[in-house]
Write a structure and sequence with these properties.
With 112 residues, the protein is an all-alpha fold. The chain has six helices and no strands. It has a single domain (2-109), classed as Glutathione S-transferase Yfyf (Class Pi), Chain A, domain 2. Helix content is 66%, strand content 0%.
Length: 112
């Protein structure tokens, strides 16, 4: 939720964040990433050895957090914190259901 505050500026052409808002949001995002790291197992799934709803959420949310923080702050705060989400995305991306999600997303966002 904290990273969603970046989406307007990162993805939709909204005005850049003020220095104060950017600093506040960055602290909040870094705090949430630290909390995520305490909970995430990546063994091999986010919550452990079983694919769960947590993986459905992580597969869609982690790339957005990475892209938004890179666009606004100039660095991917997940990678900076040591969250190897790209390997995880590749792993989950091998599942047929994940491939369908990606294909459906591409079809829905394709320009006519």
């Amino acid at each position: 939720m904290a990273a969603r505050q970046l989406y307007g500026a990162a993805f939709f052409g909204a005005a850049p964040l003020s220095e104060g808002n950017a600093a506040r949001i960055r602290r909040e995002v870094e705090q949430k990433i630290a909390g995520f790291q305490r909970l995430a197992k990546f063994a091999p799934y986010v919550a452990g050895d079983t694919f769960t709803l947590a993986d459905c959420s992580a597969f869609n949310s982690l790339p957005l957090v990475g892209m938004a923080t890179k666009a606004v702050f100039g660095e991917d705060l997940l990678l900076k914190a040591g969250v190897d989400y790209k390997a995880y995305l590749k792993f989950i991306g091998e599942r047929p259901s994940a491939q369908r999600v990606v294909a459906d997303r591409k079809a829905a966002t394709a320009k006519p």
